[in-house]
Write a structure and sequence with these properties.
The protein is an alpha/beta fold. It has a single domain, classed as Aldolase class I (TIM Barrel). It contains eleven helices and eight strands. An eight-stranded parallel β-barrel has the order 1-2-3-4-5-6-7-8, surrounded by seven helices. The N and C termini lie close together (9 Å). 43% of the residues are buried. Bound molecules: 2-phosphoglycolic acid.
Length: 253
């Protein structure tokens, strides 16, 4: 019904040689059928090369961010049209590091989601609460608000072209994984919110990933939960062997 997806977010890591080496090794591992869909997000300068390497393999290439305009006086930015031009298929949007360090808001994330869809790019839309918000008991409300704003103006025909990633901020790069029950509860809240906006059937087709210290040891338990359809992996996606182990252990429901 919906895809199981394992996505690797390489963040600001890997120079050209490392991208080539890691991606080539990974491509070797994911040749088999019956595996989750695999997405890798290198940094901008190597996207074109990564697309060429991954052509006609099971690996899709994503950007880690983009601007929402096609072109213009936006020094240092990259447009959706440019990502399409180099052959990228997916784009991570609204990652908490973008929100925290680069002042991204639910409003700009919404502009980006709309622009990605308009250009035929599949957004990996990130949401998630901080530790303070969780301790205050407002995790679900925060996630629901992030989803509602990010999807504002997205129509029924477009919703199945979006992947959502639930990434509790306190679990990213900290070694602390949300418990399976906690992650399931949040992913199910996301699906309920999407169902409220678009109906149950459309919500059932959206892949919702969990992210935050995913590793080979916890991916099976996480993906066994009914509403967790894969992982968005940072640190453990940097080495091909580690990432391949995660892909192999993911449960396809
Ligand atoms: P992590 O990062 O796996 O290193 O916690 C996840 C992410 O930021 O997407």
């Amino acid at each position: 019904m919906r895809k199981t997806i394992i996505a690797g977010n390489w963040k600001m890591n890997h120079t050209g040689a490392e991208v080539r080496e890691t991606l080539s090794a990974l491509i070797g591992y994911v040749a088999d059928k019956g595996m989750p869909e695999v997405i890798v997000a290198p940094v901008f300068p190597y996207l074109g090369e990564a697309v060429s390497l991954a052509k006609e393999t099971g690996v899709r290439i994503a950007a880690q961010n983009m601007h929402w305009k096609d072109s213009g006086a936006y020094t240092g930015e990259v447009s959706p049209a440019m990502l399409v031009d180099v052959g990228v298929s997916h784009v991570i949007l609204g990652h908490s590091e973008r929100r925290t360090y680069f002042n991204e808001t639910d409003g700009t994330v919404n502009l980006k989601v709309k622009a990605a869809l308009a250009h035929g790019l599949m957004p990996v839309l990130c949401c998630g609460e901080t530790l303070e918000q969780r301790e205050r008991g407002s995790a679900t409300a925060v996630i629901e608000a992030q989803i509602a704003t990010a999807l504002d103006g997205i129509n029924r025909e477009e919703i199945d072209r979006i992947i959502v990633a639930y990434e509790p901020v306190w679990a990213i790069g900290t070694g602390k994984t949300a418990g399976v029950a906690e992650a399931q509860e949040a992913c199910s809240a996301i699906r309920r919110k999407i169902a409220g906006l678009y109906g149950k059937d459309l919500a059932a087709a959206v892949s919702v990933l969990y992210g935050g210290s995913v590793k080979a040891e916890n991916i099976a338990a996480l993906t066994s939960a009914p509403d967790i359809d894969g992982g968005l992996v940072g640190g453990a996606s940097l080495k091909a062997d580690d990432f391949a182990a995660i892909i192999q252990h993911a449960v396809i429901k």
